[in-house]
Amino acid sequence: MEVHAASVSLDPREWQVGSLDSATNDKMAELVFERLVALDNYGRFQPVLATEWSHDGSNKRWRFTIRAGVKFSDGAALNPEDVVAALQPLLPASEQLSAAGNSIVFQSNAPMPDLLEQLSSGRYFVYRPLASGAPVGTGPFILAESPTGTAHLLFRANEDAWSGRPFVDAIDVTLGVPPLRAMFDLQLGKADLIELSPELVPRARQANLRVWSSEPVTLFGLRFDDAQAAASDVRLREALSLSLDRGTMANVLLQKQAEPAAALLPQWLSGYAFLFTVDTNLERAKEMRRGLPANEAAGVEPLRLRVDPSGDLAKLLGERVAVNARQAAISVQVVARPVPRAGAAPSPAPAAPPSGVHLFAWHYSSLSPRAELESLFAAYNLSEPSEVNATSIDHEQLYARERRVLEGRRVLPLVVQAESVGLGANVRDWMPARWGEWHLADVWLETPEPVAADSSNTTNPTSQASPQPRAVAPGAKP
Amino acid sequence: MKVCLGGHRQPVKVAWQENTSSSSYFSDARKKAFLDQISACGMEAAENSDVPRLTVTLRYTPSKALLIASLTEAVNGQQLFVVEIPRASLLVARESGAAPQLREELLWSEEKPIQSAIGWQDPSSQERYLLVFSDGLVLRFRFEDNAWKLMDSADFPGAGRRSRSGEGGFFYARAKQRFELVLRKRVCELNLDGRLSLTCSGIDVPDRTAEIASSCEESPRYLVAGKGDYTQPDRITLGSAAKTGVASSGASEETYSGSVEMPGPVLDISVAENSKTAFAVTKNLSTGNYEVYRITSVCSD
Questions:
Q1: For residue range B197-216, what is the model confidence (pLDDT) as tens digits?
Q2: DSSP classification of residue B259
Q3: Which of A217, A299, B199, B215 is deepest in the core (most CB within 10 A)?
Q4: Domain, as residue range, for B23
Q5: Which chain A residue has its CA at the smallest distance from B249's CA?
Q6: A43·B283 Cβ contact <8 A
């Protein structure tokens, strides 16, 4: 898997929901911060920093009791006011948070039946900013070193974590390692965990490396805007959709580490995505194209497709879209995202011709299908009819909302991609959430049995299983 | 399940779309309940292939199970009906008349949080006792005059960090034939002769598996609890006799036989020395009190 983050931000207020950076941020934040609640793999909400919770009959008022005796890594006690200060900036204006005794209270004008799903995922970490601005948390690790300008982050075990000391003493994270080198590092034992780019997953498996893949957590899709007149024509958008061979994108370009997507939310998150279907029908696409004005998206000017995410994978997908479109006589020109030159003085970018289509990547971060769908709608200006009940988490309503947006074809899902991780043979108790949380605090490392110079020496059995600090390298840009 | 389409009776051909995750859910009893429900709502199951097809399938989200019924009609296109069920509630399945069933009895209730409880009966005097761990104190009660009366109490020494393996609670160490309090990776032996006291060490933490036996089966079964968040009433279920590992995501849910509804989330279960009785701590969502229940496995007719 490619990591597109040039850097990591541990301040959830800075995270851009849906961005690929947020996936890396989330994994690093999980080491040092905690949320109020967690959702386990069996659908049960588990207490974390909140020990119990309750709500009124309308789901508009929720009370969470904050766990007593919890301390931040700088020694300060966690109190309900800290939780309010951390979470309120992340909430919509309609939701108010207040401290009351040893509890916090969420109050909203609209029902919040999916509040637990929201609070157990995404940016909803509890932290406290120090005077320097750096946030501290209550989690199992402490960020010990993050030298400016380097690609290393060093996390040390939080000896006083209320949840118990993690098994490993430290985690050394290296950013920006080229994927192939990361895989070699894993094979050579220089790294214990790496993020695997999709094209390397089959190779890693052939090399008998341990590979774990999450549920599909990143959506690649196309979105249209009115910067080019051709993109405003729903018939052209439909013809383009019919020309797309999503199966090849998922199976060949992404080496079966992705699935063709007909919906905006993946099946594991919405439960209803299987109801959406999308077929490749080149003949129908050609027929529709023939019915369009001859000068539209073919002759005078091509439909410009801007690839918004960085990295080779997104570029390849964009080029595949152009190839498919050409087969339906739709001219698509791929426009790469401008990359600023290192060290270059900022200067006004030359005026690029407007693009009518964007290839985007969206990382799912919320365990609430409603919240995720709304974030996506908001990010890409996917407007809904005004009569829509936007607060309903009823899955019939969600399905109807998603269907209406997809029928407008302002957005075309392409594929949903899983995250893959390569694991060292010595990694034990790897128990991630299937939506991608790593849970590194529960992992320990088995050290190899030392080679005894004297065969009569016995090995202390406890030393074989003792946790040791090792490195974790979350992959990199190619 | 509720599916209502309108006033007129409409024949539909019901198709159960089963996969590995739903095969144990769509039992004959549940199918019949579903058909009764749609009948009450104006739809009537028919075998005629000309009638609209109602496809029923079970799908999961991270926190919910969705019963999705989609009706395909020539006139109205596709109509969708979704019933949401907390995923954890599906851990209860397959009611079986031959299997042992659970019974619960309220023993104790208080406002202060209770962490664990366990009881026993003196074989010679037949007197009943109850140990309650609450607010850092171990309290010993005796049942007298139809009420639990406090005999004595002891402090739990030291308030270390919470253990990653769980908070723990009471445990009957069969090999040592004594009660222990397992908490925060410490094991405290309960000295019940004379005044209640605790002797703690930090090693040899036992596995507090909640196995319960009944007279109608040879093998003990597992008690499973806490299948829900703290805002929902919970249930204690009698699991299968075979040991099962951690199920992988998307795997079929385990099946269980008897269950008892509890008035709130189940916080702890301890099994008594006779292995036939367990003691469950629950937070009653109606009253806000913490309650101790005795759970027994009985043989159904």
A1: 888 876 666 666 777 777 66
A2: E
A3: A217
A4: 10-90
A5: A41
A6: no
